[in-house]
# Entry
Amino acid sequence: MLSEQSAATVRATLPAVGAAIGEITERFYAGLFAAHPDLLRDLFNRGNQAAGTQRQALAGSIAAFATRLVEQTGDTADGRRRDRPQDRPDAMLTRIAHKHASLGVTPEQYEVVHEHLFAAIAGVLGEAVTPEVAAAWDEVYWLMANALIAIERRLYAERGGAAWREWEVVDRVEETADVVTFSLRPRDGAPVRDFRAGQYVSVRTQLPDGARQIRQYSLSGAPGADVRRISVKRVGGGPATPEGEVSDHLHARVREGAVLELSEPYGDLVLDGVEGAPVLLASAGIGITPIVPMLAHLAASGHDAPVTVVHADRSPADHALRADHEAYAAKLPDASVHLWYEREAPAHARTGLADLTDVPVAPGTRAYLCGPLPFMRAVRAQLIEKGVAPADVHYEVFGPDLWLARA
# Structure
C-alpha cells in the first residue's frame, strides 16, 4: 500500500495532476514514440493513438488507481487507521495485465514508460513537481507497475511464455456485409492449448507499409476445438484515420492459406462461479463474439439454471453469428432470448435499442456484457436497478477501456 507520507502528498496534488492528466499523457506518448518509433510501429495500436482513445484510457486508469490508493490510507472518522489493501482495483489491473500479456509486454518496458511518463509530468506541471511530489507519484507508479508485472509473470508462466505462433487460415466465412470469420490451425501441427469461453487472442500481421500491427479479437468458436476461430468486423479507416487499418487488411487480403501470428488466449471475461446460478449474456453488434462461446460452454456443461440472452443490432442481416447464437441458446433447458433491431425487426424481436425494463432477471444473476460502451452502461444500470449486485456485472471492452475515463 502507499506510504502515509506519499499518500498525503498524492491526496494534496491529485486535483492538479487530474486536471492536467490529458496533457500529461499526450506529451508522454509524443516523447515515447519520438525516442522509440518501433513501439508505435509494432506494438501500440496506431488507430487508437490517432483517435486519442489510448491517452484517455491511460489517464483514466492512473487517476482511478491513485484515487483508490489514497482512499485506503489515512484516518477514519473515529480516528482509527484506515488500512484496506484489499481495495486495490484488482479488476482493473487484471484486465490491463491480460491485455499486456497478449501483446508480449516485458518488465523492462515499464522502465521505459516510467522515464517518459515522469518527464511528461515534470514538463507539464513544472516547478510544482518538487522532489517530495516526484517521490510520491513515483511510488504510485511502481505500485501499479509492479502489480501488473506480477500478474503478467503469472499469466506467462501459465501459458509457457509470451511467444507468438504462426497459424494458417483454413477457412473464411462472410458472416455479414462487414464481418468475416477466419478459422486457423497452427502451422507447426503441435497441440492447441484450450481457452476459456469469452477470451481473446492478439493477432499480429504485417501491413503494406511494413508495420507489424497487433489487434485483439475474441475467440468466437466453441472451446475444445483444434482450430481457432475469430470474427472480424471491418472498421472504416484510411491514412489520416487508421482506426480500421488491420480489419480492412484482414478483410481485403487474408484468404485461405494466409499465415497470421497469434498469441495465446487471454482475457478475464470468463464464466467463473456460475454453476447453478442464473446467467445473463448481453451483447450488441460485434460484441456477440465472446458471448457465443459462453453459450456454447453453458450448453455443453448442461447448465440448467435460467439463462437470459440479450442482443441488439442494426438489423437481422447485420447480426453476426446469428445461427450459432440461436442454436446454442436453444440447447439450454431454461433459456430466454430477447432481441432488438434498429430496423427490419421480425415478429419475435423488438424494434429500437435494447431495453431491459420488461425482461425478467432472476435473483442472483451473474451478468456478462460486451458491446459499445453506451450499451453496456445502460444495461448495467438497468441490471443494478433490478437487484443484480454490481460485483456480478462483468464486461469486455474492445480497444482501450474508456469506462473509467468517461465515468
Q: What stands out?
A: Residues 75-88 have pLDDT under 50 and may be disordered.
